[in-house]
Recover the amino acids of this structure.
């Protein structure tokens, strides 16, 4: 183990393809054993939402989807699969943009993202035509994984469930937190002073999103063989508040 | 040095307050020596834009700023300092939103962010009423730091200049790349296959933004005592293309 200060992002591989009913905590513990690591207080584990969704049965075969008239019309316009659009609409409370082949919606959780987070990649064998949905309640999922890990290890850790989303103004996706438990979603610097003694008036860091993005760096690969990352050495304010608290309230959204 | 796989985020402190004309590369090399580290091929150094801006003389005292009528009217509406608004307008090509005390503009570079990136914190002693502007050309700044480090160390490294910006739909700021050199801004997974052999059709990861966010995790503090971070152990596609390439073109911006 390194003596350096700083933060270590350790990939947790060796996690087999996940099926409905699997325990994410057990899979993580097995992977940690394979990697020769034991959890310690303060560790953060970031888990790709895809394996959480699979474990929770949030997968659906497009063979079983009957598109509505609304979905068919929208799919026509976007040149998309009408069954996929049907699933996206079911997962959404409203459509934000539907143009240039892009479908951005607000999910029932309040996430604003392309395709309501519904994803075909690594969802299942091609002939099954499976898609993976987002977990129903990612904060609860994070809390459950954390609680189960605590029972076994007695460690106070944090768990973040991440996904990769696009941004309105910049190309490419970045990792962000769909759910979290054990780490404060926002790190508040207000009231602290700068190097010249001047008090900061507005500085809140989206801590869980930065952790989620950092973890994505060692996760990201086409085949998603590293669906979890151990973040070690980070000091952070602890909190049981979830990632839902980071969603900007509708009445303060300047880009609806 | 750790034998573990994975990525290490190492804070580079011991960097004194930066003045116009200082060489960022020299300050980084001195900090690395203090930390007992030598650069190796593949290292990425992330530098907070604030010290780059200071070294490039991109600081201004509000005492020297005469607000225009337009700035004064806008400042009235936002209950803001009219001299600060004047500076923000000078740094911007257009105002995107000005309401609820929030001023979001598009900078001359094309960054869309609050206050055109103009920041009072850690800008200078309070009586000087100094603000720090963004570097004029952050990609050139990154390239210069990288080239200077290469002359001394002979190492092929990458340099990213980061800042923290808010997002339209989520609270809090995250680190992102204003400028870069040596690492591909976008990591393109298109054409690769998933774990079931299905070809990915749309997956581009904003690699430099994820690295910038990861570095922010060990940088972020009110007094900004860690203005640079060494990212070691990351494998990434190399490129001399800069961060400007990650800005979404205006005709594809659905949230203007």
């Amino acid at each position: 183990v390194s003596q350096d200060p700083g933060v270590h992002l350790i990939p947790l591989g060796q996690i087999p393809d996940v099926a409905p009913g699997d325990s994410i905590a057990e899979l993580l513990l097995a992977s940690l054993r394979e990697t020769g690591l034991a959890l310690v207080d303060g560790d953060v584990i970031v888990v790709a939402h895809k394996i959480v969704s699979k474990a929770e049965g949030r997968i659906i075969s497009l063979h079983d989807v009957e598109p509505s008239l609304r979905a068919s019309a929208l799919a026509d316009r976007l040149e998309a699969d009408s069954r996929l659009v049907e699933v996206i609409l079911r997962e959404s409370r409203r459509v934000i943009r539907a143009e240039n082949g892009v479908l951005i919606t607000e999910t029932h959780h309040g996430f604003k993202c392309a395709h309501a987070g519904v994803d075909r990649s690594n969802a299942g064998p091609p002939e099954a035509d499976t898609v993976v949905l987002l977990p129903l309640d990612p904060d609860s999922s994070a809390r459950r994984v954390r609680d189960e890990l605590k029972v076994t290890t007695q460690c106070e850790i944090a768990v973040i469930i991440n996904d990769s989303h696009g941004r309105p103004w910049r190309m490419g996706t970045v990792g962000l937190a769909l759910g979290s438990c054990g780490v404060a979603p926002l790190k508040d610097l207000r009231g602290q002073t700068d190097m010249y003694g001047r008090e900061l008036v507005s500085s809140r860091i989206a801590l869980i999103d930065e952790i989620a993005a950092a973890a994505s760096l060692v996760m990201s690969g086409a085949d998603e063989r590293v669906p979890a990352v151990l973040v070690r050495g980070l000091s952070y304010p602890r909190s049981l508040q979830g990632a839902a608290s980071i969603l900007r309230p509708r009445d303060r959204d300047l880009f609806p």
